[in-house]
Amino acid sequence: xxxxDAITKEYRQGSIRKRVLDAITHTxxxxxxxxxxxxxxxxxxxxxxxxxxTELPTRGSIRRTRRVSWRLGLTSGFHGSLSGxxxxxxxxxxxxxxxxxxxxxxxxxxxLGDAFRYPVKTYSTxxxxxxxxxxxxxxxxxxxxxxxxxxxxxxxxQKRCRDELQNRLKTSDIIMVSHSxxxxxxxxxxxxxxxxxxxxxxxPLPEAVRxxxxxxxx
Amino acid sequence: xxxxxxxxxxPGRKGRLSAAFQIQxxxxxxxxxxxxxxxxxxxxxxxxxxxxxxxxxxxxxMGVFHxxxxxxxxxxGDHPLHFLAMGIIPFFLFRRVAAFMSRAISANQALLDYxxxxxxxxxxxxxxxxxxxxxxxxxxxxxxxxxxxxAGPPRDLLGLLEASGLLILLGLGFGAxxxxxxxxxxxxxxVLAASWRVLYFTSGIYFLGxxxxxxxxxxxxxxxxxxxxxxxxxxxxxxxxSSAATVIYPLVWAxxxxxxxxxxxxxxxxxxxxx
Lengths: 218, 275
Hints:
Chain A is an alpha/beta fold. Chain A contains 7 helices and 10 strands.
């Protein structure tokens, strides 16, 4: 369960203060697979970063009783001069997992072969993304946060990502941001509309999409 | 569903606290292993540099002393190299801890993508690693000087540990303050660079408090590191009694700086996580 209690997020740019999220209160119950709809700049990604805990709300509080992922596909947390293996072990350790088990899963899934032993700074963007994606699946989060990216790498690897993620829906929940309705349909059962810094009610996906399209058309 | 939670609500306050400490302990443990690798193993000379830097300063000051024909120690009966080592090694104990901690947040920004990693963990990991490293460096350095017949065994081992502890705590205070302050203001780095220089020349690396005129001694006594180094010499050297060294004054500095650093971190936490 994730409880958002009146969270407000403001960014300051010099003397200008911009309120991106405005006192949002919402509870994501276990079993939820929620998409968040909204125009560009409506604060969807900010909301995900707050839920992940990467950033903190200006006011209000967030309570998590289950393990929440970082945003899927994120690769910035790797240290360039450490090898793929070393980076994996580090993340496994901070999450209290057995490094060996994590390494085995990622080796199998990401299939980077010898590259695991090289410093991550020698990786291509695609290789980094594969490593990060496999790692976030290896850690078995209870709730996955997805910011558009449901798959990375070349087409065959993308298929692996999607299949594995689909599989994961049996045991894990998802909160995702996407502009593609077809992607949302694949992973979500419900959706809510974020606009003007407020999160609308969570509705079954077809209704939410219909209402969203009506609103944006008018 | 028996995996560790990110943060726990029930059961009860006590369970939550101990779970939080467990998480913090394993995060700091993982960070220390990572820092060891990036600091020392990325470059095979990393460990060497831990000794090399103080040794280099030792040699430079030996050269200066030699050029000034000051080839005798300010402390009667002590080898000049021992005299300098008793200044430089404790100084580097302070400085390395402080300097390494000063970059704890700025060098690890990317890690904040993992919500489990907090600023304070970054600082603590660097503090623990660097104080342990520098204590080992100091121990080995004096062991070598002892084998060469330059330094004898310390007069007062407990006092020596106390002085070292004092300098480490000063390093902790300075380091915590700097780590946050450099993130808040880019101009602070310039202040910091200047203050390293002032500290280097006023901490009593190459002079004794006793050898200074009273007016200068009063001025130098404002430097908390000077107190630590005087205490170190007093505990090590035979027959040196410092009239200037106090314990309370540097302790207050360490405590105030640490507190300020933590308060600034708490106040600016939102901002620091956005950077």
